[in-house]
Write a structure and sequence with these properties.
The chain has 293 residues and is an alpha/beta fold. The protein has 11 helices and 10 strands. The chain is globular and about 50 Å long. Bound molecules: S-adenosylmethionine.
Length: 293
C-alpha cells in the first residue's frame, strides 16, 4: 500500500493538468472575501526537487514541466501569447524557484499554500509514514504554516467530519494514487457522503486514464452520482501520446463538481496550448465536457 511516492511523478503532464485547473478554482473562489477552506485529501510531500532524488529516476518532468518551461520561453521570445491559464500556472511554478530553471516542483499543498489569503485555511491529509514527516517539515517552513493543518489520517474516512466547513465555502481536492484498486470504490463512497453533507462545495477529482476497468468507468460513475444530487460537473482530460501497450501514463483527467462558470472558457484556452507544448505524437488531444443544472 505504501509503495507510491509522488516524487517519482512530480512535474509530469498529469500534475500540470491538475495544478493548472486548481489555480483557477482557487482564484474564482477567492473572488468573494469570505474565508475559503481548502481540503487536500491526498497531499504527498508538498514540494519536490527535480534535480536529485526520485524525480531524476523517473524523469517524468522531462515530458512535463521542463517541456512546458521551454515552450513558454520560446513563445515569450517570439512575443506569442501563452494564454491566461498556462501563464498563471508558469508564474506559480516560477515563484517557487529562485533562478530561471525549474529546480523544484510544488505539489498541491504548496500551490494551495501560495494562494492562501489571511482568512483562508488549508487542511492536508497524508497517510504514508515517510511522506507525512517530509510534508510536516516542508509545511513548517512556510510563512502560511499557521493557516495549515496536517493530518496523518485516512482521508477517505475523515473527510466527512470536516464538511461543511464553517464558512460554507470550500474546495476539496481528491487525488489518490489509485495503486490500490479499492481507491476507486472509496472515491464513490466518499463523494456520496460529501455531497450529502456539503452539496454546494467545489470538488476536484484527479484520475488516471489507463486500460483498467475501474479507471475506464470512473467518469461515468462520477457523473451518475453527481447528477443524482442535481449538481453540475465538468470533465477535462489531457492525452500527450497514444502508444498502445505502453506502461507509462499517457493521459489523465480532472472531474470537477460544482465548477465555476468561468472554468470551461479558461480550460478551452489552455488545453490546446498544453497539447501543443506537451504532445508527443499525433494522438495528443484534450477532452472538455460539462453539464449544468
Ligand atoms: N496531491 C498531490 C499533488 O498534487 O502534489 C499528490 C498526491 S499523490 C497522487 C497521493 C498521496 O496520497 C500519496 O502520497 C499517498 O501516500 C497518499 N495517500 C494514499 N492513501 C491515502 C489516504 N487514504 N488518506 C490520505 N493520504 C493517502
Amino acid at each position: 500500500m505504501f509503495s507510491y511516492r509522488h516524487a517519482f511523478h512530480a512535474g509530469s503532464h498529469a500534475d500540470i493538468l491538475k495544478h493548472l485547473t486548481l489555480i483557477h478554482l482557487v482564484s474564482y473562489l477567492q473572488e468573494k472575501p469570505g474565508a475559503l477552506t481548502i481540503i487536500d485529501t491526498h497531499a504527498g510531500a508538498g514540494i519536490y526537487s527535480l534535480k536529485d532524488g526520485f524525480a531524476t529516476v523517473s524523469k517524468e518532468a522531462d515530458g512535463g514541466i521542463f517541456r512546458l518551461k521551454q515552450f513558454s520561453q520560446d513563445y515569450e521570445k517570439l512575443d506569442k501569447p501563452l494564454g491566461e491559464g498556462v501563464k498563471d500556472f508558469m508564474e506559480c511554478i516560477d515563484a517557487q524557484n529562485l533562478g530561471n530553471e525549474v529546480d523544484v516542483y510544488p505539489g498541491s499543498p504548496f500551490i494551495f499554500a501560495s494562494l492562501l489569503r489571511p482568512q483562508d485555511r488549508l487542511k492536508l491529509f497524508e497517510l504514508h509514514p515517510k511522506e507525512i514527516d517530509i510534508l510536516r517539515h516542508n509545511v513548517s517552513q512556510l510563512k502560511q504554516a499557521k493557516q495549515i493543518d496536517v493530518y496523518a489520517q485516512d482521508s477517505f474516512s475523515r473527510l466527512k467530519g470536516l464538511l461543511p466547513p464553517p464558512s460554507r465555502r470550500g474546495l476539496v481536492l481528491i487525488d489518490p494514487s489509485y495503486e490500490d484498486k479499492q481507491d476507486y470504490r472509496y472515491l464513490e463512497t466518499v463523494m456520496e457522503e460529501a455531497l450529502q453533507r456539503f452539496a454546494t462545495g467545489c470538488y476536484a477529482i484527479w484520475y488516471p486514464i489507463i486500460p483498467r476497468r475501474e479507471s475506464v468507468g470512473l467518469p461515468d460513475r462520477m457523473k451518475k452520482i453527481v447528477t443524482s444530487h442535481q449538481r453540475a460537473w465538468l470533465q477535462t482530460e489531457l492525452r500527450v501520446e497514444n502508444v498502445p501497450g505502453e506502461r507509462r501514463l499517457q493521459a489523465s483527467g480532472m472531474f470537477i463538481i460544482n465548477p465555476p462558470w468561468t472554468l470551461k472558457k479558461y480550460l478551452a484556452q489552455a488545453l490546446p496550448i498544453l497539447v501543443k507544448a506537451l504532445g508527443q505524437d499525433s494522438g495528443a488531444q484534450f477532452v472538455l465536457n460539462s453539464f449544468e443544472t
